[in-house]
Specification:
heterodimer; A: 85 residues; mainly beta; B: 416 residues; alpha/beta; FAD/NAD(P)-binding domain; D-Amino Acid Oxidase, Chain A, domain 2; 2 domains; 10 helices
């Protein structure tokens, strides 16, 4: 189980969190970009063997969304958001 | 190929089993082949076999990073079935199930295929409606699905003592899929390898591919391995979870995420369940192997993972759910637990296609790909040999995502 560092609640068990997917490109304006770019945004996600930035939601806790950097092979969390006071 | 039979067994017993032929050769790696298949797993070996058998292409090398049949073909829960949802999927899996049933004879290798029926245990009405809709589509393609009452479910699965009217999630009924069965995964890998080898295909173990090589005009040219460069005009990627790791070396992006799926087995016990039990509402399924072990499959780990072990809380959730319905299993000791990493597309259907890199074929996105091995191998071989897709797999293109033309199969497996 991962111990995820929530910016408000500090280290909590993974079971309190909901996974929100890897961080892809920023959402383009569907009316402004070509269909291809829009579809790429919808379907392509980073899938590296190694560190990946991903979104987590502290659903069964404070409700905060945040981004961590986690290694997909070792599951080590390499970067967590700074603590908020 | 040395024929396996009662007589060959008796003859070799007289010489203390010292004179059996090796099941496949280990020839030196050549510089060039007609077709290179990356990954000696189920799909890779089946593709190699059907390329040689059906299409006469025998100058083929199967390159494997580890050992033959040591990847996901050895890490699944051997369930073979065809209860899928979409018109594109069902005929494909029906074909695969029927090929599996004839595979022992075809490959002269005992698959220990046991056509033992699968029972879906259903806990809610929307799910039941969904399964009955699936039944109507499956009827068109000669797959079997039939609704049964709670009493019949309990009659088919006597060990199912939980889920009564007073429980949190009472059982409301079930569905029976009579075509489903289990068989022996090692036999599938070894059988295909042995038969492909006898037709001239070469298997190269401990030959890891590090990169795909493209010619100056963009076509695929070959692969770079730990044993040097090997050339081929056609390369098939059949590496499950590591598909994107390889295709990215050719500058190709595919809509795949790699996930880890849970499985574990109990200690061997006397026969207690003779069907495959699937409880999709609670997120687990199991069958009893010939050795007597309960082979249990669970849910995926939620986030991307390239690991081959499983997380404690995913494991505990699965066990907890199982004990809700099968309280008597509380006394069982669990012997082994493992995970497999596999990749999934946005619609949970596979990709079997020539990619935008000419000559580079991909068979990926298999979530429950074990049941698809024979049909997957046959149709992929057809595509590679004839440069056009087999009718059974023509829907599973790379380009369907460009039009958001999904073949949505989420929910027909443990994929969410």
């Amino acid at each position: 189980m991962l111990l995820i560092n929530c910016p408000f609640c500090k280290e909590r068990n993974e079971t309190e969190f909901v996974y929100g997917g890897p961080v892809g490109v920023d959402r383009p304006d569907p009316n402004a970009v070509a269909d291809q770019e829009w579809v790429d945004f919808l379907t392509l996600v980073p899938n590296p063997t190694g560190p990946v930035f991903e979104k987590w939601w502290h659903a069964r806790g404070c409700g905060e969304w945040f981004v961590i950097c986690r290694d997909t092979v070792t599951h080590e969390i390499l970067e967590s958001p700074d603590e908020k006071s | 190929m040395q024929n396996y039979s009662f007589f060959s067994l008796a003859r070799n017993a007289l010489s203390s089993h010292k004179n059996w032929q090796a099941a496949w050769r280990s020839p030196p790696l050549k510089e060039e082949y007609d077709v290179i298949i990356i990954g000696a797993g189920g799909h890779g070996l089946a593709t190699a076999y059907y390329l040689a058998k059906e299409f006469g292409i025998t100058n083929v090398a199967v390159l494997e990073r580890g050992w033959l049949g040591g990847g996901n073909v050895a890490r699944n829960t051997v369930t073979v079935r065809s209860n899928y949802l979409r018109d594109q999927s069902i005929p494909f899996y029906v074909k695969s199930v029927s090929l599996y049933e004839g595979l022992t004879k075809e490959l002269n290798f005992n698959m220990m295929h046991s056509k033992r029926t699968m029972v879906d245990v259903v806990h809610n009405y929307p799910k039941m409606r969904d399964l009955r809709r699936r039944q109507l589509t499956m009827d068109i393609y000669n797959s079997t699905y039939e609704q049964i009452t709670v009493e019949k479910v309990r009659q088919l699965i006597p060990a199912l003592t939980g889920g009564g009217p007073g429980s949190r999630l009472p059982i409301i009924g079930g569905m029976v899929h009579k075509d489903a069965g289990v068989n022996r995964h090692d036999a599938v890998a070894w059988g295909y390898a042995r038969a492909a080898d006898s037709l001239g295909v070469e298997m190269h173990q401990k030959t890891g591919v590090t990169a795909l090589l493209r010619a100056s005009n963009g076509d695929i040219q070959g692969v770079e391995t730990n044993k040097g460069v090997v050339k081929a005009k056609k390369v098939v990627v059949a590496v499950s979870g590591h598909t994107t790791t390889l295709t990215e070396t050719a500058g190709l992006k595919l809509p795949l995420r790699t996930m880890n799926l849970t499985a574990f087995v109990s200690e061997p016990i006397k026969p207690i369940v003779d069907v495959i039990v699937n409880c999709s509402d609670l997120g687990f399924y199991f069958s009893q192997s010939d050795k007597g072990e309960l082979v249990i499959g669970g849910a995926p780990d939620s986030a991307q993972s390239f690991r081959r072990d499983i997380k404690q809380h995913v494991f505990e959730d699965t066990v907890g759910a199982m004990l809700e319905l099968f309280p008597s299993f509380k006394k069982l000791k669990l012997l082994r637990q493992w995970g497999g990493h596999l990749d999934i597309t946005p619609d949970a259907s596979p990709i079997m296609d020539e990619t935008s890199v000419p000559g580079l074929y991909v068979t990926a996105g298999w979530w429950g790909g074990y049941k698809a091995i024979p049909a997957g191998g046959l149709t992929m071989a057809h595509h590679v040999a004839k440069n056009m897709p087999h009718p059974l797999m023509e829907a599973f293109t790379c380009n369907r995502f460009k039009n958001l033309d999904y073949i949505l199969e989420t929910g027909t497996t443990t994929a969410r």
